Amino acid sequence: MWRTLLSFLTAFLLTVVLMPLVIKLCKKLKARQTILHYVDNHQSKSGTPTMGGIGFIIAIAIATVLATLGEDNSLAIVAVLATVAFAVVGFLDDFIKIFFKQNKGLAAWQKIVFQSAIALVVSLFAFYNEVIAGEILIPFALTRTSLGWAAIPLFFILFLAFTNAVNLTDGLDGLASKVTLVYMLFNAGLIFVYALVLGDPHPHHGEYISLLVFCGAVIGGILGFLCFNGFPAKIFMGDTGALALGGAVGALAVVSGLSLYSPMIGIMYVLTCLSVIMQVLYFKATKGKRIFLMSPLHHHFERKGLHENRIVTLYTAVTAAVGSLCLLITLVVNGIG
Known about the structure:
The chain is mainly alpha-helical. It has twelve helices and two strands, in the order H-H-H-H-E-E-H-H-H-H-H-H-H-H.
């Protein structure tokens, strides 16, 4: 546990130290957020520095590597590499938007190609790696079951789905950050429980402890970032941070074996993503009609008159409630506590 605490504190302190430098640099380079015209209630935020994800991504990577040196850490390192890889894609997107004055950033096909390449590499790793071996954990019982070759497409789809769902959730000050923090907290709890079930003599026990270290680093990095991103935000994470957090969530779901828990604890990611899909399909089918006042879902709630702080609290609370229920049932089923 001390290594998890070390990674948490290291990531938190590094982020707190780095963020003022990142904010200063972004202001100097005029890396500022442009608010699209149809999000008219956020026009006051136009000009806020963006690309703040750089700060906590560096911190998460350093903290995880330092706290897992010399240990069984292949799963944690792959999770970090996936996080950084998605951060790079997000950085390219932000860079094009800001410095080339192109609001759409990377073309849709470019994002799909980059994201698919990363997702495929991680999915193949999860299939061939001896710790995961294409298996997933059955929720609550924590027993492993093999998916065979079906594991590769499942991991691939799950990875891409959650990466983009997290990115879609990034629309209000602190929303993606707080939801992801709580999501990681309960995944860390489940990983800890599974490590207890395996027991220390088990050859894969160390790998799951290293994943716990990665979760600690992500939580610490997000908490540090929230010191600057809470309402009203001094800086936005940009796609650099949002895609990176999506990469962290997707990678953790795949390499931890907790894939089937992900849609439950990540219920607000799922609802956010579904709201966009439903809106687009309904709009096309009815030639212009809408289900929601605006999508993603959090913007619909804004249009209904809810303050963004209340929406962020609602999303965070629902994630915490579902996460608590999943963890509690798992503890009871496994006779722990």
